[in-house]
Write a structure and sequence with these properties.
Elements: H1 2-9, E1 21-24, E2 27-30, H2 31-53, H3 58-83, H4 86-89, H5 109-127, H6 131-156, E3 170-171, E4 186-187, H7 190-212, H8 218-237, E5 244-245, E6 248-249, H9 250-272, H10 291-295, H11 297-300, H12 302-305, H13 307-310, H14 312-338
Antiparallel strand pairs: 1-2, 3-4, 5-6
Helix pairs in contact: 2-3, 2-6, 3-5, 5-6, 6-7, 6-8, 7-8, 8-9
Subcellular location: Cell membrane
Region (Disordered): 274-339
EC number: 2.5.1.145
């Protein structure tokens, strides 16, 4: 019995990976990058299924993603560098060149969403499809991509929370513990909290969308509101370096503001634009924005089609020539009488 009690009292914990980089010859294979790529793949897969189910064109969505994904990655890095500028431009260990080392981690989700949305908007304008309809289709896919992306933080042993003795505490290697926390071995696994929360966001959007048929951005606004509701309290657990304003981390304020804006946008959209947009009228993938004008070009060929009627005078030429030949002897005879 005593041995059983001792076994029960042994604290459990989540071990961290022993490494996050493998080498294929001289080429480093980083777990962080693999997690990001996996997130992009599954997010696009889910968004594509939803887009096609609404009647949208899969090739058109692929074209849009070719704009949105690079914009999103660049925006994610820019947001991180701006909100944690002291890591790269401050005194001490910061180095500006490190701002370009995206493989070391450091991607801000709101930079990814904001810049990714900008790229998608540009592509939607070119393809002549409603941007908010694309955002609705991709909303749960974005949340699902974040689930995979958070495991990149797990492999990097970064962005964890305060110390904890809970059985799900995350083991962090001594060298990755922040200053002042070297004596603690286990921390709140905030990457796992957010991954689980985001899975709930995915399920929430899909279930409510099936019930209410969201359109005009409402599924996307629901994603923003649901994600920020969780991000605010998870962010407050973290102990990594961050800028503060009025006692709260900057990302907490960002979450609060975006939550309010998303709720307001959802309500306005529901009142002004009930129902869903028609997404089946966009041009084929790769077709330029002035495709309607190009499609009208066959009408310009109508004069060519009418050319056979123009050939009628040519068909009448033999009879005219015959008339000229008939007139010629008469004219000659008249000339002879005058002589």
């Amino acid at each position: 019995m005593s041995s059983l009690s001792s076994a029960v009292m042994i604290p459990a914990s989540i071990p961290s990976p022993s490494q996050g980089v493998w080498h294929l010859g001289p080429v480093p294979i980083r777990a962080y990058a693999l997690c990001i790529l996996a997130g992009i793949f599954v997010g696009y897969w889910l968004g594509r299924r939803r887009w096609v189910a609404r009647g949208g064109s899969a090739p058109v969505l692929a074209d849009i993603m070719f704009w949105a994904i690079p914009f999103g990655l660049v925006g994610a890095r820019i947001y991180h560098v701006i909100t944690d500028a002291e890591q790269y431009f401050g005194p001490g260990e910061g180095s500006p060149i490190d701002a370009l080392k995206i493989w070391h981690g450091g991607l801000g989700v709101w930079g990814a969403v904001g810049f990714g949305a900008l790229g998608a908007w540009i592509a939607c304008r070119r393809a002549k499809v409603p941007f908010l309809a694309v955002a609705d289709a991709m909303a749960p896919g974005i949340a699902l991509a974040q689930v995979f992306g958070r495991f990149g933080n797990y492999f990097n042993q970064e962005l964890f929370g305060r110390p904890t003795t809970q059985p799900w505490g995350l083991e962090i290697a001594f060298g990755n513990r922040p200053t002042g926390y070297q004596d603690f071995a286990t921390f709140h696994p905030t990457f796992l909290y957010e991954a689980i929360w985001n899975l709930g966001v995915v399920a929430l959007i899909i279930l409510l969308d099936r019930r209410f048929k969201f359109g005009h951005g409402r599924a996307f606004f629901l994603y923003v509101a649901a994600y920020t509701a969780g991000r605010a309290w998870i962010e407050d657990l973290r102990i990594d370096t961050a800028n503060h304003f009025l006692g709260l981390r900057l990302n907490v304020w960002t979450s609060i503001i975006l939550f309010v804006l998303a709720v307001v946008a959802f309500v306005i959209s529901a009142k002004r634009h009930p129902g869903q947009e028609d997404v089946s009228s966009g041009p084929a993938a790769g077709q330029p924005a002035d495709s309607e004008k190009q499609a009208a070009e066959p009408s310009d060929a109508e004069p060519d089609a009418a050319e056979p009627s123009d050939a009628k005078p040519d068909a009448a030429e033999p009879s005219a020539a015959k008339a000229d030949r008939d007139e010629a002897p008469t004219a000659k005879a008249n000339d002879g009488s005058r002589d």
